[in-house]
Amino acid sequence: MIPAPLVACNGAAIPDFGLGTWRLRDDVAAGMTEASLRLGVRHIDTARLYENEVAVGRGIRASGVPREQIFVTSKIPPGALKADAVRREAEASLRELDIGYLDLLLVHWPNASIPLKETLGAFAALKRRGLIRHIGVSNFTTKLIEEAVAACPEPIVTNQVEYHPYLDQSKVLAACRRHGMSLTAYSPLARGRIAEDATIRAIARAHNRTPAQVGLRWLVQQPDVIAIPRSSREGRLAENFGIHDFALAPEEMTRIASLAHPRGRDTDPAGWAPVWD
Ligand SMILES: NC(=O)c1ccc[n+]([C@@H]2O[C@H](COP(=O)([O-])OP(=O)(O)OC[C@H]3O[C@@H](n4cnc5c(N)ncnc54)[C@H](OP(=O)(O)O)[C@@H]3O)[C@@H](O)[C@H]2O)c1
Q: Using DSSP, how many helices (H) and how many strands (E) does the chain show?
């Protein structure tokens, strides 16, 4: 398979394709991690909340791929963003993954009751200790990005947000670019919905590709965008990763972008979600 190009963002170099692991547990999480690495994927996305770090770590080690060739992301839950909790959760993440260091640690969801300065100061301390290489955020709006950039003593390399053809993220993407950050697209397949989309299916037929490949290609063809699709089926890994040997025409990119609509967002958890842009 063609290796994923690296996206440069504030000193980090992140493969533009990674394996999402939400809802993958135990042997499935370990097996999919190992299989994706054997195929050539070099970016794995997990989180404390996914409760699969032990399995993901097992998959990483079983793959035989040298640690330094893999970009591993984890996330601190919104209930653990005070300084001592950040330290405790990051240490637990590393203990469970057992991979020495994290390439990227994200604030999983914002928490308005804890000052960003305290949270991001604790992230910066982890970076100084060598436990994490880069700092990022997730589910941050344009307003929160500005606040985070101002509050963090270190550069912020990415904002991981929901992004797929049904959700317009142009404002958030512009804010990321303004600050030298990438945008990591979660639910890049709209949780599988794009596979049934008539427009995407027609474009896929024209390229002799699958709808998932066209949706993922549409994301990574945009500068500074990274996609992290999840699958629990090994048979789908090569399909999803096989997006670096074709290109969509500008007119196709525009047609896919026009599928966005105001109710396109899937993930909007009451209590955690900020007021979106
Ligand atoms: N930061 C956050 O708050 C946040 C929130 C949500 C997700 N994430 C991250 O983003 C990752 C991806 O997002 P997601 O898991 O929500 O959704 P997704 O990747 O958009 O979609 C996953 C779904 O699509 C199906 N699928 C996979 N490949 C396919 C293909 N080639 N054709 C048709 N269907 C396919 C999968 O089914 P099978 O398993 O049967 O293949 C699964 O049901 C997560 O795993 C997680 O790492 C982060």
A: 10, 10
Please tell me whether the overall predicted TM-score, pTM, comes out greater than 0.90 for this model: yes
Sequence ranges of the domains in the chain: 6-192+219-232
DSSP 148-208: HHHH-SS-EEEEEEE-STTS--HHHHHHHHHTT-EEEEESTTGGGGGGG-HHHHHHHHHHT
- Top mutation candidate among 22, 24, 160 for ligand 1, by most atoms within 8 Å of CB: 22
247: tokens are 């290109």
The superfamily in CATH containing domain 6-192+219-232 is NADP-dependent oxidoreductase domain (3.20.20.100)
6 Cα: distance to centroid of ligand 1 (angstroms): 21
Whether 238 lines ligand 1, by a CB cut-off of 6 Å, is no
Residue 138's φ and ψ, nearest 5 degrees, are: -145, 140
Please list the rounded mean pLDDT of every run of 10 residues in the chain (277 residues).
96 98 98 98 98 98 98 98 98 98 99 98 98 98 98 98 98 98 98 98 98 98 98 97 98 98 96 96
User: What is the chain's length?
Assistant: 277
Best of 50, 53, 186 to mutate for ligand 1, by most ligand atoms within 8 A of CB? 186
Residue with CA closest to ligand 1 atom 36: 231
Distance CA 80, CA 120 (A): 12
Check residue 42 and report its DSSP letter: -
